[in-house]
Every structure is written in structure tokens, then in C-alpha cells.
Amino acid sequence: MLNNISITQWRCRFISIVYFCFWVGLPMTVLQPPIRNERCTNLKQCPPRFTKGRGEVNKFILGGVMNIIQQMYASLCLVVVCSIVVLVAPVYGESIFLKDGSIVEGDIVKETDKAMDVKLPDGNKITIPRKDIVRTLVNTNYKTKMYIMKTNKEVLPVYIVEEDNESYTYRNELQSADEYKISKGDVLFLSKIPPQDWIADEVQKKVNELGVKKHYTWEQKVKWRAPLFRFGYSNIGKYADSDIDDAYSDSRDINAFIDLFPLRFRNESGSGFDVMMRVRAVGNFDEPELYDEKTQLLSKLFDVTIGEEYEAQFNIGMIGGGIRYAYTLYYGVAIQPYVFGLINYVVIDQIKVESTTETESFDEKISSSKYGFQAGVGVDIGLTPHIGIFVEGMYGYISAKFNDGKKHNIDGYYIYYGVTWRTSYGLID
To answer: How confident is the model over 116-160, as pLDDT tens digits?
Structure first.
């Protein structure tokens, strides 16, 4: 086992044993409590033993010497046991730097003036001529990439392989034989993280402490914000089902929505995913003439005879949720094309034809499916950090079974336009 332990390790272990022997042996041998006669209770009852004769003195000395010997023996046993533990405990190996730039890691088990025998981690042994060795290190700090900030503000990403009182020796590439020196007088500081990032963090901390508002460029102000609320309106579009479109398109009174984006996962370029919620209303109210072409169509859809004045109502209210993806471009303003998909839940579906005469001879109603979907594309334009506009093309589907026995899509194709309120999604105050 002794041959498998390097010279350097032996030196460290010898020093450890010496220190351990000193700090353990000292209190156990020297700092012992005085020997007492347990039968004594005070000085009058227990005068010094040597006053009673030479025999008593000899017994006292002999007892004290035996007590010290016993304590020293116990201390020696403890030191021996602990020394064995120290000797057999595993230690870190050395790193041997060669002239070709390579680094050999292992334990130096033997060394002479001409060569070193090294035991590798895999158990194999190799012999390295001393003429090929640049240095030997017993630590692994050289593996950590460091950043040297020079006094001229130049930054050097390096691996420091040697240090003395005057300079650092470093490599740009760890496995390269090329080494360079830099005077400590030319070094402002060392850091494990890029100094630019470190300086930026320190500056931001100081800014926060002083309550100074950070300055952003116009591009950052615009790109690092995205729509939080939107209001959209449409007067361009049609119902997807031709019968529904013929019956109701001319009398559309409202087609609008309000969007909310509670979560926005954007990157520094302004692109990313948004969680999207939409409240939308589509409404029609009409009182067609009896001779109007849509009267016959409504009679067919609702399977009712319309022979008197009537009104037709078509009101859909829904709430939806989904995901959209936006990509950001910057040309003085933020241009964000996007695609989205939503699942809708129908809250209101008031679809009916109703007589307006005193007789009120008919009142027919239809109920739609409670679920539908929307999908579309659009573009948000951030005109200022907080205000924007948008245009969106959308397709929606909601099924409803009319009295004619057919299912009709009561949603359709629309083009919306509107305004947005834009806020930060985390990159800007």
C-alpha cells in the first residue's frame, strides 16, 4: 500500500499526524486533574502526604507516575488508530502537466530524478520522463474557467494553471501547450462569471438601492411589451352556413370581442406564447316584411308558417380560452404576426322568430351546442410602448340543429380590427 501513495500525499499525511498527536496527546497527558484522596474532606483532615513519612511519599509519587503512564498509553493507542485511518483514507491525486499540453491525472507512486511512476484512475500505471513534465498540481482549481478583467477593461476568458507573487500563468485552451503570463499589476479582478454580466448585476443592484429608474431604448420599450387587453370589432364577414347568412347577415347589429392575455411567455426578441381569453358577442335583431325573401327562409329553418308581422332574433354570447403564438419584428414599431386557437363555451344562444301581433300565434326557439372553436391569424402593431392596433382574420364554428332537421354552423368568417393596451411581460419595468 505504501508504494501506491504519492510523495506529496505522504508529506500531507505526516503533517496531519503530527498535529493530531499534539492536540490529542497534550490534553490527555498534561491537562489531567490533580490526584486526590477521596476520603479527605478538608485540609485539616487531609494534610500533605509527605508529612507522614518517606513511605507515604514514595506511594504518592509512584501512584502519580502510574496514572500518567496509563493516560499516555491510552493517548498513544488513540493516536495510532487515528493515524492508520489517516494513512488508508482516500485522497485526491495529482494533475501532471506535460509539454505537449496534455494533463495526466493520477497518483504519483514513485519518483526519481529521471521519471515518475503514476497510477491512473483506471488502475493502470505509466512512467513519465521528467523532461516531459512542466508542473504538478495537487488541486483541480485550474479546471475552472476564469475571467480576467484587465485594468484596460479587456476581458480574458482563461484557465489559470499557475500563480506566484507577481503573475498568473494561464491557458486559453486547457489542453493546449500554449501558456501566457500576465502581471498581477495589470489585473483589475478575477471572476467565475463574465465581468460584463457581473458589472451589469452590480450596476442594477446599485440602481435599485438608489431608486434610479433604468433607461431603456425606444426599441426595448416597444419590443419588451405585448398586448394585455384588446378590443375588436367587425363589420366585415359572413356566416359560414349559406342559409344562416342569407337569413341574418343583412341585419347584424353587433360583432365584437374583448381579449385578455393573463400569461405571456415572451423572450428578449418579443416572440413567444400567450395564454388567451376571449369574450365575444354576435347579435342580430330584425323585423322583416312578410314579402321579404328571408321570411320564406326563416319559415323553412324554424318550420313555422309566418303569416303576420314578426321579428327575428339571433344573439350569441360566448367565452373562450386558448393559446396564441406571436413573432416580433421591429421597424420603428413592433410588428407581431400571430396565430391562435380557442375553445368556446356558449353562454347565451337566443335564436328565435316571434309574432309581434296581438294574437302572438307563434314563438319558435332554437338551442345551439354549448361548445365550439375559433382559429385565426392576425398582426399586432405596437405604435407606442403602451398603445397598439391590430387586424385579425378568424373562423368560428358553433353547431345548432334547426327545426328543418339540419345542423347549421351559426358562426362564420370575419375580419376584426381594434386597439390594444400593451404592458411589460417581465423584461422591462
So the answer is: 999 998 889 999 999 999 999 888 888 898 999 888 878 889 999
Are 67 and 35 spatial neighbours (Cβ–Cβ below 8 Å)?
Answer: yes
- Is there a contact between 148 and 190 (Cβ–Cβ < 8 Å)? yes
CA angle 60, 63, 65 (to 5 degrees): 110
Give 383-418 as a DSSP string: SSSSEEEEEEEEEEEEEEE-TTS-EEE--EEEEEEE
- CATH number at 218-424: 2.40.160.20
Residue 240 sits at the vertex; the CA angle it makes with 235 and 244, to the nearest 5 degrees, is: 85
pLDDT of residue 88: 45
User: What's the confidence (pLDDT) of residue 36?
Assistant: 46
Phi-psi region of 426 (alpha: psi -120 to 50; beta: other; left: phi over 0): left
Best CA proximity match to 215, nearest among 198, 202, 203, 199: 203
Instruction: State the Cα–Cα distance between residues 143 and 368, nearest whole angstrom.
Output: 69
The one-letter amino acid at 19: Y
Average pLDDT over residues 165-174: 92
Confidence of residue 373 (pLDDT cuts 50, 70, 90): very high
Do 251 and 283 meet the contact criterion of CB atoms below 8 Å apart?
no
Cβ neighbours, 10 Å, residue 302: 21
